[in-house]
Amino acid sequence: MILNKFFIVTILILAMLPMDVLAVMKSSNYVIYENVLNPFDGPAIANVSSSAGSTSATITWNTNVPADGFVIYSADSGFASYQEQGSSAKDSASHSVTVTGLTAGTTYYFKVKSTRINGGTTTDSTVRSFATVAVTTSTSVQFVYTGGVLVVGKKETTPPIITGVKAENLGAGKINITWLTSEDATSFIEYGLTDNYGQINGNWDLKGAHAITIINLKPDTTYHYRIVSSDDSGNIVKSGDYVIKTTLFNESLIADEVNTEIKEIKDNTDQGDSKETIIAKTSNNILDFIKKIIPPAGTDSQGEDSAISQFDILEKLTSLMPSPKIVGEPTVEAEANTAIISWQTDINANSLVALAPVQSYDAKKDEPYIQIVGNTENYATNHQVRIFGLNQDTLYHFQARSKSKLGPTGKSGDYTFRTKLELFAISNYYSQIIDNETAVFKWVTNAEADSSVTIAPYRGNNLVVNEAKTFKNSSISVIHEITIKEFQAGVYYQVELKSQDLKGNIALETIPAFSTSADDLPPVIFQVQTNSTIFINSNEGIQTIISWKTNDPSTSQVYYIEGVHQAADNWPGKTKLDDNYTRDHVMVITNFNPGIVYSFRVESVDAGGSAAISDVHTFMTPKRKESIFSIVLKILEDTFSWITRLV
């Protein structure tokens, strides 16, 4: 009965508590979340205000519960393209975000956003604005970061201009595209069978004149393409849609081969022979050679003395030559947009694949396939054809074909394969170190997406996740570039590249150990100060505060000794190591004696293990104040030495 009453009282007390108290109950040892299956409304936002300088602005606001804080801002009032900055820590109801990297003399529009612990998000519907202060002289930008998300500001925001776009067919399945830009920029081509493109080719080299060659295209096929270039500041420009149709063959190459054959015939023919005689001799020579290696079963019964027309000779050549035999079944390695088909033949032959998606395959036609790809010029017994530009998750019919230099084409049976479902992914990523504090990260995605980079440092070989910072750009593109100026020399970081496409798919790539400098520089120690106070208690002890600053986060420790000493001396006294990494160091020492001169040095070690130790500093602790009674006793002690036995 007593237990039941206790349970009822407990339920009544819980029912009277506010919802935000029930949602999160904290102690020093645990956090309890109430019913995580129930979504919570976003926090209420109030008291939004802003103040702006020339290149930065501070936005403040309040929420009714602890939440994180982000500022969405843009120079466009419609937020067609915007950026975010803020902190993901959900530990306060008062929020202050300093937006950096702004352009002086510019009006910016912004909204604030907060997400509470249980997931409810509120984006303030009111669009506010602030104007940065115009400056007439060039000033350096001081970046002030508080953790969380930061988007790199750009001083130059004008993208390059694309002109002079030209496309040229270089033969079967090969085109070359050239263009000019108004400033040095990267070179990328998006291309595909529709204006959705789906494939990209190019490089990151900065230049004004661009040329990109695309190979392994389908012959006699119409392709869409557009140009994407970005300048050194990361400003991206995209051209309009262009169309080009690939050719079936390289006409100039065929002409060269024909000319070579004619030259060989002329070299082996008497100058006085007629054109008809040259053709007849050449045909007969070929036929004689074939008869030597293959019995001419079914040839004309009149034999060699018969008058055989040139047409008859060529027809017999075809009938006498066997076609290459395809050994076994072809093998297929299919990806989302490509496939590799391999097979073997009993004699040297070229490598071709006839192909059609299932909806276009017609077995009743003389040619049931819609395209033929491969290599017509190389002859071998092991064959491999790589097919590009396939549609993802699609069933294809195919037939392997091989033809020797003379004779008919050997064909396999009809086979099928299905391409894989394409996954949104990052490719062609790399980093460029500018200096010890700055690095640029670039990557390419196979669909248009945003860009973000998250960095987290290693401290004492441990990854410190709570020091992670995210740099984000909401602009949508297939090429991505973010500059980070937050690195410390010699410190290793985990770097995560992230892009999210318009469908919400996320692609990630992680650089597990990145550093801007292999040789770690030790921290710089400055502003070393001391302050000693005598406090009254039973021991009348001394409290001494030693403080200093470093340019990089590092540990804190003090070495000390009584008297005046040099740096080379032994230092028997030292404080306990404070292994918190900070730029502002404070150590409190309570075991100094009053009225004594002390020498001390401070030491700081950064996350990379590089140590810095200061010069020797000296100070004197304060003396105890003597009471009147103590003064009288001292006088008596000096006068009567026996008085010391009474004290």
Give a written overview of the molecule.
This protein has 647 residues and is mainly beta. The protein folds into six domains: 1-151, Sandwich (Immunoglobulin-like); 162-245, Immunoglobulin-like (Sandwich), CATH 2.60.40; 251-320, no CATH class; 326-418, Immunoglobulin-like; 426-514, Immunoglobulin-like; 525-620, Immunoglobulins (Immunoglobulin-like, Sandwich), CATH 2.60.40. The chain is built from six helices and 34 strands. The protein has helices at residues 2-16, 19-23, 251-267, 275-293, 310-320, 628-639; strands at 24-26, 31-33, 45-52, 57-74, 83-99, 107-115, 121-123, 128-131, 148-149, 162-171, 174-192, 199-214, 222-230, 236-238, 242-245, 326-334, 339-357, 371-387, 395-403, 409-411, 415-418, 426-433, 439-459, 462-463, 469-484, 493-500, 506-514, 525-534, 542-562, 573-574, 578-592, 597-605, 611-613, 617-620. The strands form six sheets. Strands 9, 22, 23, 24, 25, 26 and 27 form a seven-stranded mixed β-sheet that branches. Strands 28, 29, 30, 31, 32, 33 and 34 form a seven-stranded antiparallel β-sheet that branches. α4 packs parallel to α5. The radius of gyration is 40 Å and the shape is elongated. Residues 1-38, 137-154 and 292-310 have low confidence and may be disordered. Residues 42-135, 522-624 form the Fibronectin type-III domain.
